[in-house]
Amino acid sequence: MTKNISKIIIIFIISLCGGLLGSQIVWPSYQSANLPTSIIESKEIVIQENVALQDSVQKIQKSIVGVRTKTKEGKIIFGSGLVVTSDGLIITLSELVPLKGDFTFFINSKTPNWQILKRDVENNLILVKLDLNDLMTISFSNRDELKAGERVFIGGTIFDNNKPLVTINEGIIKFFNEEYIRTNMFEKKTLSGSALFNIKGELLGLNTIDDEERVTAIPINKIKDFLGY
């Protein structure tokens, strides 16, 4: 009888120790393995992307050009363009600089003299030489790295009392092909000619705005062909 009681007590003590061991070592390890760490990682990724976006915006702001055109009919057209070389070459949409009109280009609080060098009506592109030097330029993206769902942003100008202000919007790429890049963004016509950048601040294309205010970009491959790169 005494032996049986002793066995029961020993078994009880072993069970108790096992329970304590499991609660202190095994269960925390199981909990740790099953924690929703993806939420934490997701937050970290978003924070990193936000910082990258802010850095990229700072990098491209001085390369954005404002465009204001008074047509021969007296209509005022507002839009944007982009510096492509430090010695004053800029690119914008051909529709913003019609064959007959009074044009003004704004960059870094200046309105320099200009000269039209090249026009491609079919692809809606125009190359203009501004009488300026030492301008900030941007990097071109690699077309082969483009992905649907990729986070992107617009850099362009809006005009407040005829004064251009750099404006930014962000979204994603919905789909693309060799002819255009469709985003999920909507903007006013006044942001025609704005630039589409990836999160690193590399140029993806120049934006056109349709009658439904959808943002669709002329892709970088067409821009490179136009520039002869």
Describe the 3D structure.
The protein has 229 residues and is of the alpha+beta class. The chain has 3 helices and 13 strands; from the N terminus they run H-H-E-E-E-E-E-E-E-E-E-E-E-E-E-H. A hairpin with a 4-residue loop joins strand 12 (202-209) and strand 13. The N and C termini lie far apart (97 Å). Residues 25-33 have low confidence and may be disordered.
Structural descriptors:
single chain; 229 residues; alpha+beta; Thrombin, subunit H; 2 domains; six-stranded antiparallel beta sheet; 3 helices; 39% strand
Mean pLDDT: 86
The top-level CATH class of the largest domain is Mainly Beta
Shape: globular
Write down the Rg: 29 Å
Q: How are the strands ordered across the major sheet?
A: 4-1-2-3-6-5
> How many structural domains does the protein architecture include?
2
Largest sheet: 6 strands, antiparallel
**Helical amount among residues, as a percent range?**
25-40%
String of helices and strands: HHEEEEEEEEEEEEEH
Which structural class do the helices and strands define? alpha+beta
Instruction: Write the CATH fold name of the largest domain.
Output: Thrombin, subunit H
Low-confidence stretches: 25-33
CATH architecture of the largest domain: Beta Barrel
Separation of the first and last Cα atoms? 97 Å
Q: What is the count of β-strands?
A: 13
In terms of DSSP E residues, the strand content is 35-45%
Counted by DSSP, the helix tally is 3
Helices and strands in order:
Blueprint: H1 2-33, H2 37-60, E1 64-71, E2 76-83, E3 89-92, E4 101-106, E5 114-120, E6 125-130, E7 139-140, E8 151-160, E9 163-176, E10 181-186, E11 195-198, E12 202-209, E13 214-219, H3 220-227
